[in-house]
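Reminder to self: keep the SMILES exactly as supplied, no canonicalising. Ligand is LCXROUX7.
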Amino acid sequence: MALAAAGRVLLQAGSRLGRREVVDGARRFANKRVEVEADEAAGIAVMKLKNPPVNSLSLEFLTEFLISLEKLENNKNFRGVILTSERPGVFSAGLDLMEMYGRNPAHYAEYWRAVQELWLRLYLSNMILVCAINGTSPAGGCLMALTCDHRIMADNPKYTIGLNESQLGIVAPFWFKDNFVNTVGYRTAEHALQLGLLFPPAEALKLGIVDEVVPEDQVHSKAQSVMAQWMAIPDHSRQLTKNMMRKAMADNLIKQREADIQNFVSFISRDSIQKSLHTYLEKLKQKKG
Ligand SMILES: CCCCC/C=C\C/C=C\CC/C=C/CC(=O)SCCNC(=O)CCNC(=O)[C@H](O)C(C)(C)COP(=O)(O)OP(=O)(O)OC[C@H]1O[C@@H](n2cnc3c(N)ncnc32)[C@H](O)[C@@H]1OP(=O)(O)O
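C-alpha coordinates returned for the bound complex:
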Protein backbone atom coordinates (compact mmCIF):
# COMPACT_ATOMS: atom_id res chain seq x y z
CA MET A 1 0.00 0.00 0.00
CA ALA A 2 2.71 2.44 1.08
CA LEU A 3 4.73 1.48 -1.99
CA ALA A 4 1.77 2.01 -4.32
CA ALA A 5 1.07 5.45 -2.85
CA ALA A 6 4.69 6.50 -3.19
CA GLY A 7 4.67 5.19 -6.76
CA ARG A 8 1.69 7.40 -7.61
CA VAL A 9 3.55 10.41 -6.21
CA LEU A 10 6.51 9.58 -8.42
CA LEU A 11 4.31 9.17 -11.48
CA GLN A 12 2.83 12.59 -10.77
CA ALA A 13 6.32 13.97 -10.35
CA GLY A 14 7.22 12.43 -13.71
CA SER A 15 4.41 14.19 -15.50
CA ARG A 16 5.28 17.43 -13.68
CA LEU A 17 8.74 17.09 -15.18
CA GLY A 18 7.02 16.90 -18.55
CA ARG A 19 8.86 13.78 -19.72
CA ARG A 20 7.68 12.43 -23.04
CA GLU A 21 8.27 8.85 -23.85
CA VAL A 22 9.66 7.93 -27.19
CA VAL A 23 8.23 4.64 -28.33
CA ASP A 24 10.21 2.98 -31.06
CA GLY A 25 8.42 0.03 -32.64
CA ALA A 26 7.02 -0.77 -29.17
CA ARG A 27 10.40 -2.29 -28.37
CA ARG A 28 12.32 0.58 -27.03
CA PHE A 29 11.28 3.32 -24.72
CA ALA A 30 13.42 6.00 -23.28
CA ASN A 31 13.25 9.05 -21.21
CA LYS A 32 16.19 11.34 -20.79
CA ARG A 33 18.10 9.37 -18.20
CA VAL A 34 17.06 5.75 -18.62
CA GLU A 35 16.92 3.77 -21.83
CA VAL A 36 14.88 0.59 -21.95
CA GLU A 37 15.29 -2.02 -24.66
CA ALA A 38 12.24 -4.15 -24.16
CA ASP A 39 11.88 -7.52 -25.85
CA GLU A 40 8.31 -8.37 -24.94
CA ALA A 41 8.30 -11.70 -26.77
CA ALA A 42 11.33 -12.87 -24.80
CA GLY A 43 9.99 -11.25 -21.61
CA ILE A 44 13.31 -9.47 -20.99
CA ALA A 45 14.17 -5.79 -20.81
CA VAL A 46 17.58 -4.15 -20.64
CA MET A 47 17.55 -0.97 -18.56
CA LYS A 48 20.50 1.29 -19.30
CA LEU A 49 21.44 4.04 -16.87
CA LYS A 50 22.07 7.15 -18.91
CA ASN A 51 22.72 10.11 -16.64
CA PRO A 52 26.02 11.64 -17.75
CA PRO A 53 28.69 12.17 -16.74
CA VAL A 54 28.72 9.47 -14.05
CA ASN A 55 25.17 8.08 -13.69
CA SER A 56 24.73 9.71 -10.30
CA LEU A 57 21.36 8.97 -8.77
CA SER A 58 19.83 12.44 -8.90
CA LEU A 59 16.19 13.02 -7.98
CA GLU A 60 15.29 13.35 -11.64
CA PHE A 61 17.12 10.15 -12.48
CA LEU A 62 15.39 8.28 -9.64
CA THR A 63 11.98 9.51 -10.78
CA GLU A 64 12.56 8.45 -14.37
CA PHE A 65 14.05 5.13 -13.35
CA LEU A 66 11.11 4.28 -11.08
CA ILE A 67 8.59 5.17 -13.78
CA SER A 68 10.37 2.90 -16.29
CA LEU A 69 10.61 0.08 -13.78
CA GLU A 70 6.94 0.39 -12.92
CA LYS A 71 5.99 0.13 -16.59
CA LEU A 72 7.83 -3.16 -16.80
CA GLU A 73 6.41 -4.42 -13.50
CA ASN A 74 2.88 -3.64 -14.73
CA ASN A 75 3.33 -5.62 -17.93
CA LYS A 76 3.05 -9.26 -16.98
CA ASN A 77 4.91 -10.28 -20.14
CA PHE A 78 8.16 -9.03 -18.63
CA ARG A 79 9.84 -11.50 -16.33
CA GLY A 80 13.42 -10.28 -16.27
CA VAL A 81 15.43 -7.08 -16.34
CA ILE A 82 19.13 -6.60 -17.03
CA LEU A 83 20.46 -3.49 -15.38
CA THR A 84 23.52 -1.88 -16.90
CA SER A 85 25.16 1.44 -17.76
CA GLU A 86 24.79 3.05 -21.12
CA ARG A 87 28.27 4.44 -20.55
CA PRO A 88 30.79 1.64 -19.94
CA GLY A 89 33.40 2.76 -17.43
CA VAL A 90 30.99 3.99 -14.79
CA PHE A 91 28.05 1.85 -13.73
CA SER A 92 26.90 4.49 -11.25
CA ALA A 93 28.73 7.00 -9.01
CA GLY A 94 26.02 6.45 -6.41
CA LEU A 95 23.77 9.01 -4.84
CA ASP A 96 24.04 12.46 -6.32
CA LEU A 97 26.15 14.48 -3.90
CA MET A 98 24.57 17.70 -5.11
CA GLU A 99 21.19 16.46 -3.82
CA MET A 100 22.71 16.17 -0.34
CA TYR A 101 24.79 19.33 -0.24
CA GLY A 102 23.64 22.90 0.32
CA ARG A 103 19.92 22.14 0.00
CA ASN A 104 17.06 22.62 2.46
CA PRO A 105 15.48 20.01 4.77
CA ALA A 106 12.39 19.61 2.58
CA HIS A 107 14.61 18.77 -0.38
CA TYR A 108 16.66 16.28 1.65
CA ALA A 109 13.42 14.59 2.76
CA GLU A 110 12.05 14.38 -0.78
CA TYR A 111 15.34 13.01 -2.05
CA TRP A 112 15.67 10.42 0.67
CA ARG A 113 12.12 9.15 0.12
CA ALA A 114 12.99 8.60 -3.55
CA VAL A 115 16.20 6.76 -2.60
CA GLN A 116 14.23 4.51 -0.25
CA GLU A 117 11.67 3.93 -2.99
CA LEU A 118 14.34 2.88 -5.48
CA TRP A 119 15.75 0.37 -3.03
CA LEU A 120 12.35 -1.04 -2.02
CA ARG A 121 11.14 -1.36 -5.62
CA LEU A 122 14.28 -3.09 -6.79
CA TYR A 123 14.75 -5.24 -3.71
CA LEU A 124 11.14 -6.45 -3.74
CA SER A 125 10.74 -6.72 -7.50
CA ASN A 126 8.97 -9.87 -8.65
CA MET A 127 11.04 -9.79 -11.81
CA ILE A 128 14.45 -11.43 -12.16
CA LEU A 129 17.06 -8.70 -11.87
CA VAL A 130 20.50 -9.35 -13.34
CA CYS A 131 23.09 -6.63 -12.93
CA ALA A 132 25.69 -6.20 -15.66
CA ILE A 133 28.24 -4.02 -13.88
CA ASN A 134 30.21 -2.53 -16.74
CA GLY A 135 32.03 0.11 -14.73
CA THR A 136 32.86 1.51 -11.36
CA SER A 137 30.11 1.31 -8.78
CA PRO A 138 30.61 3.00 -5.41
CA ALA A 139 28.10 3.47 -2.59
CA GLY A 140 24.56 3.92 -3.96
CA GLY A 141 25.74 2.36 -7.24
CA CYS A 142 26.83 -0.71 -5.33
CA LEU A 143 23.54 -0.71 -3.44
CA MET A 144 21.60 -0.80 -6.70
CA ALA A 145 23.64 -3.81 -7.76
CA LEU A 146 23.10 -5.47 -4.38
CA THR A 147 19.33 -5.42 -4.87
CA CYS A 148 19.70 -7.63 -7.95
CA ASP A 149 19.40 -11.42 -7.98
CA HIS A 150 22.69 -11.94 -9.81
CA ARG A 151 25.69 -9.66 -10.38
CA ILE A 152 28.20 -9.91 -13.21
CA MET A 153 31.15 -7.52 -13.22
CA ALA A 154 33.52 -6.58 -16.03
CA ASP A 155 37.04 -7.81 -15.42
CA ASN A 156 38.78 -4.44 -15.45
CA PRO A 157 41.00 -3.67 -12.45
CA LYS A 158 40.25 0.05 -12.88
CA TYR A 159 36.65 -0.59 -11.83
CA THR A 160 35.75 -0.83 -8.17
CA ILE A 161 32.64 -1.60 -6.17
CA GLY A 162 31.72 -1.25 -2.50
CA LEU A 163 30.12 0.98 0.10
CA ASN A 164 32.63 3.81 0.57
CA GLU A 165 30.36 6.16 2.56
CA SER A 166 32.68 6.43 5.56
CA GLN A 167 35.41 7.82 3.30
CA LEU A 168 33.08 10.72 2.55
CA GLY A 169 32.44 11.33 6.25
CA ILE A 170 28.92 9.95 5.99
CA VAL A 171 27.38 6.70 7.20
CA ALA A 172 25.77 3.91 5.22
CA PRO A 173 22.16 3.75 6.52
CA PHE A 174 21.02 0.57 8.27
CA TRP A 175 19.27 -0.84 5.20
CA PHE A 176 22.37 -0.35 3.01
CA LYS A 177 24.29 -2.12 5.77
CA ASP A 178 21.72 -4.94 6.09
CA ASN A 179 21.71 -5.55 2.34
CA PHE A 180 25.52 -5.67 2.38
CA VAL A 181 25.71 -7.94 5.45
CA ASN A 182 23.24 -10.35 3.87
CA THR A 183 25.44 -10.49 0.79
CA VAL A 184 28.96 -10.77 2.21
CA GLY A 185 28.55 -11.73 5.88
CA TYR A 186 28.96 -9.76 9.08
CA ARG A 187 32.74 -9.65 9.54
CA THR A 188 33.53 -8.71 5.96
CA ALA A 189 30.82 -6.04 6.05
CA GLU A 190 31.99 -4.60 9.36
CA HIS A 191 35.54 -4.29 8.10
CA ALA A 192 34.65 -2.96 4.65
CA LEU A 193 32.04 -0.48 5.93
CA GLN A 194 34.25 1.08 8.60
CA LEU A 195 37.09 1.58 6.13
CA GLY A 196 34.77 2.50 3.26
CA LEU A 197 36.55 0.01 1.03
CA LEU A 198 36.10 -0.20 -2.71
CA PHE A 199 37.12 -3.49 -4.30
CA PRO A 200 38.38 -4.33 -7.79
CA PRO A 201 36.49 -7.14 -9.55
CA ALA A 202 38.66 -10.08 -8.46
CA GLU A 203 38.39 -9.11 -4.78
CA ALA A 204 34.70 -8.32 -5.08
CA LEU A 205 34.21 -11.82 -6.45
CA LYS A 206 36.18 -13.39 -3.62
CA LEU A 207 34.06 -11.57 -1.03
CA GLY A 208 30.79 -12.40 -2.79
CA ILE A 209 29.89 -8.79 -3.63
CA VAL A 210 29.54 -9.99 -7.22
CA ASP A 211 28.71 -13.48 -8.45
CA GLU A 212 30.84 -13.55 -11.58
CA VAL A 213 33.64 -11.62 -13.23
CA VAL A 214 33.92 -11.89 -17.01
CA PRO A 215 35.93 -10.15 -19.75
CA GLU A 216 34.54 -6.70 -20.38
CA ASP A 217 33.22 -7.52 -23.85
CA GLN A 218 31.29 -10.51 -22.51
CA VAL A 219 29.34 -8.80 -19.72
CA HIS A 220 26.21 -8.38 -21.78
CA SER A 221 26.17 -11.87 -23.35
CA LYS A 222 26.85 -13.39 -19.94
CA ALA A 223 23.95 -11.43 -18.47
CA GLN A 224 21.69 -12.80 -21.22
CA SER A 225 22.76 -16.39 -20.57
CA VAL A 226 22.35 -16.02 -16.80
CA MET A 227 18.90 -14.56 -17.43
CA ALA A 228 17.96 -17.56 -19.57
CA GLN A 229 19.00 -19.87 -16.74
CA TRP A 230 16.87 -17.97 -14.20
CA MET A 231 13.92 -17.81 -16.57
CA ALA A 232 13.83 -21.59 -16.72
CA ILE A 233 12.63 -21.62 -13.10
CA PRO A 234 8.84 -21.34 -12.65
CA ASP A 235 7.99 -17.77 -11.68
CA HIS A 236 5.68 -18.65 -8.81
CA SER A 237 8.24 -20.73 -6.93
CA ARG A 238 11.09 -18.32 -7.59
CA GLN A 239 9.02 -15.30 -6.59
CA LEU A 240 7.72 -16.90 -3.39
CA THR A 241 11.26 -17.89 -2.47
CA LYS A 242 12.60 -14.41 -3.20
CA ASN A 243 9.86 -12.86 -1.11
CA MET A 244 10.52 -15.27 1.74
CA MET A 245 14.21 -14.33 1.71
CA ARG A 246 13.73 -10.57 1.41
CA LYS A 247 10.45 -9.52 2.99
CA ALA A 248 11.64 -9.17 6.57
CA MET A 249 14.49 -6.88 5.64
CA ALA A 250 12.31 -4.68 3.45
CA ASP A 251 9.58 -4.56 6.11
CA ASN A 252 12.15 -3.32 8.56
CA LEU A 253 12.62 -0.20 6.46
CA ILE A 254 8.92 0.13 5.56
CA LYS A 255 7.89 0.21 9.21
CA GLN A 256 10.35 2.99 10.07
CA ARG A 257 10.42 4.83 6.79
CA GLU A 258 9.44 8.23 8.19
CA ALA A 259 11.90 7.96 11.08
CA ASP A 260 14.63 7.00 8.60
CA ILE A 261 13.85 10.11 6.56
CA GLN A 262 14.03 12.30 9.66
CA ASN A 263 17.35 10.69 10.65
CA PHE A 264 18.75 11.34 7.22
CA VAL A 265 17.58 14.96 7.18
CA SER A 266 19.01 15.78 10.58
CA PHE A 267 22.27 13.93 9.85
CA ILE A 268 22.89 15.45 6.44
CA SER A 269 21.94 18.96 7.64
CA ARG A 270 24.68 19.01 10.28
CA ASP A 271 27.37 21.60 9.62
CA SER A 272 30.09 19.00 10.14
CA ILE A 273 28.56 16.66 7.55
CA GLN A 274 28.07 19.46 5.03
CA LYS A 275 31.74 20.36 5.56
CA SER A 276 32.79 16.75 4.90
CA LEU A 277 30.76 16.70 1.69
CA HIS A 278 32.27 20.02 0.64
CA THR A 279 35.78 18.64 1.18
CA TYR A 280 34.96 15.49 -0.78
CA LEU A 281 33.49 17.46 -3.68
CA GLU A 282 36.59 19.65 -3.75
CA LYS A 283 38.75 16.53 -3.85
CA LEU A 284 36.78 15.24 -6.83
CA LYS A 285 37.34 18.57 -8.60
CA GLN A 286 41.08 18.67 -7.81
CA LYS A 287 41.52 15.15 -9.15
CA LYS A 288 40.76 16.66 -12.56
CA GLY A 289 43.02 19.68 -12.49
C1 LIG B 1 24.36 7.32 13.63
C2 LIG B 1 23.62 8.23 12.74
C3 LIG B 1 23.48 7.64 11.39
C4 LIG B 1 22.49 8.39 10.63
C5 LIG B 1 22.56 7.94 9.21
C6 LIG B 1 21.44 8.49 8.49
C7 LIG B 1 21.49 8.62 7.21
C8 LIG B 1 22.70 8.33 6.38
C9 LIG B 1 23.31 9.56 5.87
C10 LIG B 1 23.88 9.63 4.68
C11 LIG B 1 23.99 8.50 3.77
C12 LIG B 1 24.03 8.95 2.37
C13 LIG B 1 24.44 7.83 1.47
C14 LIG B 1 25.13 8.07 0.39
C15 LIG B 1 25.56 7.01 -0.53
C16 LIG B 1 26.25 7.52 -1.76
O1 LIG B 1 26.04 6.97 -2.82
S1 LIG B 1 27.28 8.87 -1.65
C17 LIG B 1 28.07 9.01 -3.21
C18 LIG B 1 29.35 8.21 -3.22
N1 LIG B 1 29.98 8.29 -4.50
C19 LIG B 1 31.27 8.44 -4.68
O2 LIG B 1 32.05 8.52 -3.76
C20 LIG B 1 31.77 8.54 -6.11
C21 LIG B 1 32.43 9.84 -6.39
N2 LIG B 1 32.88 9.91 -7.77
C22 LIG B 1 33.99 9.32 -8.21
O3 LIG B 1 34.72 8.69 -7.50
C23 LIG B 1 34.29 9.52 -9.67
O4 LIG B 1 33.53 10.57 -10.16
C24 LIG B 1 34.03 8.27 -10.53
C25 LIG B 1 32.64 7.71 -10.32
C26 LIG B 1 35.09 7.19 -10.22
C27 LIG B 1 34.15 8.65 -12.04
O5 LIG B 1 35.39 9.25 -12.27
P1 LIG B 1 35.61 10.11 -13.59
O6 LIG B 1 37.06 10.51 -13.58
O7 LIG B 1 35.07 9.40 -14.75
O8 LIG B 1 34.69 11.39 -13.41
P2 LIG B 1 34.93 12.68 -12.47
O9 LIG B 1 35.41 12.26 -11.13
O10 LIG B 1 35.76 13.65 -13.21
O11 LIG B 1 33.45 13.21 -12.30
C28 LIG B 1 32.78 13.89 -13.34
C29 LIG B 1 31.84 14.90 -12.72
O12 LIG B 1 30.85 14.20 -11.96
C30 LIG B 1 30.84 14.68 -10.62
N3 LIG B 1 30.48 13.59 -9.72
C31 LIG B 1 31.13 12.46 -9.53
N4 LIG B 1 30.47 11.67 -8.65
C32 LIG B 1 29.36 12.33 -8.29
C33 LIG B 1 28.28 12.06 -7.41
N5 LIG B 1 28.19 10.91 -6.73
N6 LIG B 1 27.32 12.98 -7.28
C34 LIG B 1 27.38 14.16 -7.97
N7 LIG B 1 28.39 14.48 -8.82
C35 LIG B 1 29.37 13.57 -8.98
C36 LIG B 1 32.26 15.18 -10.40
O13 LIG B 1 32.32 16.07 -9.33
C37 LIG B 1 32.56 15.81 -11.72
O14 LIG B 1 31.89 17.06 -11.76
P3 LIG B 1 32.51 18.32 -12.54
O15 LIG B 1 33.84 18.63 -11.86
O16 LIG B 1 31.51 19.41 -12.35
O17 LIG B 1 32.68 17.88 -13.95
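Points to follow up:
Residues 1-26 have pLDDT under 50 and may be disordered.
The first helix runs from residue 2 to 16.
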